[in-house]
Amino acid sequence: MAKEKKVQRITDMEVDFAQWYTDICRQAELIEYASVKGFTILRPYGYAIWENMQNIMDGEFKKTGHVNVAMPVLIPESLLKKEGELVNGFAPECAWVTHGGGEKLEERLAFRPTSETMFCDHWSNILTSYRELPMLYNQWCSVIRWEKTTRPFLRSREFWWQEGHTIHETAEEAIAETEQQLNCYADFYENVLAIPVVKGRKTDKEKFAGAEATYTVECMMKDRKALQGATSHYFGDKFSRAYDVTFTGRDNTQQYPFQTSWGSTTRMIGAVIMTHGDNNGLVLPPKVAPYQVVIVPVAAHKPGVLDKARELFDTLKAAGVRVHLDDSDQSPGWKFAQYEMKGVPVRLEIGPKDIENGQCVLVRRHDGEKVVTALDGLAEAVQEQLTVVHNGMYERALKNLTENTFEAHSLEEAKKIQEEKGGFIKTMWCGDLECELAMKEQAGMSSRCMPLEQEHLDDVCPICGKKAKAMVYWGVAY
Amino acid sequence: MAKEKKVQRITDMEVDFAQWYTDICRQAELIEYASVKGFTILRPYGYAIWENMQNIMDGEFKKTGHVNVAMPVLIPESLLKKEGELVNGFAPECAWVTHGGGEKLEERLAFRPTSETMFCDHWSNILTSYRELPMLYNQWCSVIRWEKTTRPFLRSREFWWQEGHTIHETAEEAIAETEQQLNCYADFYENVLAIPVVKGRKTDKEKFAGAEATYTVECMMKDRKALQGATSHYFGDKFSRAYDVTFTGRDNTQQYPFQTSWGSTTRMIGAVIMTHGDNNGLVLPPKVAPYQVVIVPVAAHKPGVLDKARELFDTLKAAGVRVHLDDSDQSPGWKFAQYEMKGVPVRLEIGPKDIENGQCVLVRRHDGEKVVTALDGLAEAVQEQLTVVHNGMYERALKNLTENTFEAHSLEEAKKIQEEKGGFIKTMWCGDLECELAMKEQAGMSSRCMPLEQEHLDDVCPICGKKAKAMVYWGVAY
Predict the structure, then answer these.
(1) pTM score, two decimals?
(2) Is A430 strand, coil or helix?
(3) DSSP letter string over A194-228?
(4) N or C end of chain A, less CB within 10 A?
(5) What residues in chain A have per-residue pLDDT under 50?
(6) Using a CB-CB distance cutoff of 8 angstroms, which residues of chain A are in contact with residue B4?
């Protein structure tokens, strides 16, 4: 029996948000499941989004002097174990290679869950003098963390990411690097992905294994849950000491460099889906959309329509717009639904009447607005619309974040707000783990971060009544 | 005790070619060894070369409609075993993951040695109709093959590569794809890496495990040994049948698509080193050089020199030249040696006298030629020199290839030439494995390929005396 192309149909997000999310991942052809449990395939359309993210972010990293390298994917167990907190954090999630070339290995090797250990080992071999500092390295690769439950882009046994690793002569420089890269992520989320973020510092409970401080950008999804967008860590000289990374300082003494690492992953695609998507499918920010514009000819059989469509394609392409012309024999209605599912930011409709009037219709994906546009000066008009789209998407996401951020003055109040409305709930906090655990147990929320922009809501911690040290954002997180 | 930066010093290639090669890899800071035996680290300078290669080649792939994807890195043993020839070819070299998340896995997973199996498995899930064909996929990733002896870039347990995988409606289209990608590699070698190649087809003994036909580009190194540059394979419908990949054809019957795969690796960096390098270090083709030009100020302390050097830097950068200004306090002599080691194609010297005369000196790395150049119109002059460099490097490599390709009419003659001169030796061949093995055993040479441009040297196979079927290139290969 002949296989047939499945009809596209997705669950409404109000009915089942999780299913809606998975439906988009599949129907927009971003991912497909693989034969290995918990692993996914990034399909061409999904990978093209990731490629655009990589290109833009890599350019930003290079502007500030970072260079790319490639480290081995396998880490000897003994090397991984040199820093106790790190190995305790990651060893339970490691995949282990035990055999190679038909023989049992003398020592098992971990598929990298993160590469601090490899970078430190490398630096311990090559670093000699303060003159070589800072070393500002990054790598694009995949890592494995053996998660029990998985979800496309958000939690997958293998995921693709960049991991930046740097060493510096002084603590001040390393701290400045940590902050610079946090800001780099925040700018990327806001200016590229059209997603507003809350910048802050993680509590000790939530920080990266072995880090002295972890900074994060937190975003709010359409279901008002939190998503950790990217993180930036400061290690002090803890790893340098554990891995014996040293250099001759300006004063001719042996010193330990200060270290950072920072990472962002394909999870950003998940953030885009859950921040901007709707019941017709994906809605892509123009800067990472594989196609920014799709041209759909209407009454394509009429003389001159396809020629004009091709001419407009050439015009937009020459102007640097990522444009796709669908001149297939599918109906315009099918095409409309198809490219809505795929989240193409702007649809350009052109038919015989339009050509007669020297115009076309631009339809914005995110708000459905139709803009009748003169063919004369089309490229500029399209660029303008792409900016309108980006800003419109950002504003809508910001509204969601702002309207769903609440303050609470007691654990009970926090719990009630979370149950009734969800979102981010801010309270003061004494800094004790016990109160953090109480919020988790009683209100189901983890601490998202201590925002860099602090507010004074109360004098005391609303959980224990002790003196408050900081304001915390709480939420239910992916 | 303070560590000190090692003095650069490399072995002469005439003394010990293998050691000369390794010395360049280390001293030009392309690679460093890792704590895992047989694995290497691509350092920033080495990775930057690879990035340039990737960018150019990826652009070429996209021009012909290929798209990138990411497949899981781990392959279940049962999936790998579905196609017998492939598993026999690769299983002995696999690294196996046996434990994940603290538990023994039910089935062990191979770190991909190549991904035909994963692509076929994926296609068996998503392909429905001839309308979706061809599927022209590629991925950039690393693979593991557990080699016994390793050498930087040439043979390493982990290496970085691209693997293209495509399926087509007809055998003709798949064969055309195989040829197109072979030509793509040949063009890349010649136009980008300045390395001439011999295009040909592999014998059955040397072809890819499971392929119906393997095509190759073969290059000759400075020691007159052969290096397989890249390969392109045609599979017929063998894998489609093994993995049950089917589609509904134009006639509404279920059909198996025809498949290709093609790959090139970081080994290309090794080819560059051994084709162009000399006793002063690396010599890089301008199109992949991280820096195409290095500006070295002479008498930099004299007024105006550094300012002028910076001005020239800005001029060249604005013109799209990859340029580096070394304004450090090292001596010009040290800098000359340093950038010769790193293979920068053009050195630009600028001192007070030059400024007075409105000129600078361009020194070409590959032939040491000094070209006094007016500062007026510098960018164009530099671009011109980069073309001169590329062409000069190509011509020199072509001379090496041409002058060291010989014909032989008996096994004894072939053996004698190989012992005395090395290089490629061409003979006729009957097509039998026995004769191929005899050449290997008695003259130490493997068949490199049956060139697409055939010549008629004899009527019979010089090894067995039977009727000749094709002309073969023989050589000692890396």
Answers:
(1) 0.96
(2) coil
(3) ----EEEE--TTTS-TT-SEEEEEEEE-TTS-EEE
(4) N
(5) 1-7
(6) 128-129, 248
